[in-house]
Amino acid sequence: SKIFVGNLSWGTTDDTLRDTFGQYGEITDAVVLRDRETGRSRGFGFVTFATPESAQAAVDNMNEQDLDGRNVRVNLANERPAGGGGGGYGGGRGG
User: Fold this and answer.
1) For residues 17 and 31, what is the distance between their CA atoms, to the nearest angstrom?
2) Phi-psi label, residue 90: left if phi above 0, alpha if psi -120 to 50, beta otherwise
3) Which of 19, 44, 81, 88 is the most buried (most CB within 10 A)?
4) If 0-12 CB within 10 Å is exposed, 13-18 middle and 19+ buried, where does residue 9 land?
């Protein structure tokens, strides 16, 4: 089960995500998306958990919490945010 993590600090890395979210369950993948040209963080990433329960626990506990000085947005990656949640649609699936 994959979660979306948005509003990341420039300094947040794959390892940061793995360390931070690992307390909620077994992680099979953690990635901060980076700009292809500059290698800089694009400010969001995904964490994939072994079970849906772990993913939900991470969403419940980490949404709007501080990570590297930023209040991160955390939600299930396969859900659309309710209302006009702004961007974040469509990206990251292909490839």
Assistant:
1) 7
2) left
3) 44
4) middle
Which residues, in sequence order, are bridge partners of residue 4? Answer: 46, 75
Whole-prediction pTM = 0.81
Query: DSSP string covering 28-45, please?
Result: EEEEEEE-TTT--EEEEE
Report in angstroms the alpha-carbon separations of 64 from 20, 55, 60.
Answer: 14, 15, 10
- Tell me the per-residue pLDDT of 44-86, one tens digit each, with 9 for 90 and over: 999 999 999 999 999 999 999 999 999 999 999 976 555 444 4
Q: Distance (Å, rounded) from C-alpha 3 to C-alpha 78?
A: 8
